[in-house]
Amino acid sequence: MSPERRLAGLALLLPAFGALLLTRPLIDIFDAKARLFGLPRVVVYLFGVWLVLIVLAYLFSRLLPKDGEDRPPDRTGRGAGGG
Predict the structure, then answer these.
(1) TM spans, by residue (predicted)?
(2) Which of 26, 65, 80, 83 is the most exposed place for a label (fewest CB within 10 A)?
(3) Band of the pLDDT at 81, cuts 50, 70, 90?
(4) Could you tell me the CA-to-CA distances from 43 to 27, 51, 55 in Å, in that order?
(5) pLDDT tens digits for range 8-44
């Protein structure tokens, strides 16, 4: 399997990973009276997960090839886009 396909597969798992991190049982772990930087820990956790998901999505968007790039030509020799 090519590295691009492997990376595309990981990019497809990113929303599922984010949904898993935002499930109620994991959020309840951080829902305590303790504070971090003057904020409740649950708020720091939620915004931290959100930030990590945004950064990972940005990295995947930079690493994955754009549509039509690195595709083998079709039978007509004009590329996969047909044009």
Answers:
(1) 42-61
(2) 83
(3) low
(4) 10, 12, 18
(5) 888 888 999 999 999 999 899 888 888 988 999 999 9
Residues in the chain: 83
Helices (H), ranges, the chain: 3-21, 24-30, 41-63
Beta-strand pair 39-40/35-36 = antiparallel
- CB distance 60 to 4 below 8 Å: no
The domain locations on the chain are 3-63
Q: How many whole angstroms separate alpha carbon 35 and alpha carbon 14?
A: 29
Contact partners, residue 5, CB within 8 Å, separation at least 6 = none
- What lies within 8 Å, CB to CB, of 45 at 6+ separation is 27, 30
DSSP state of 65: P
Give the predicted TM-score (pTM) of the model: 0.69
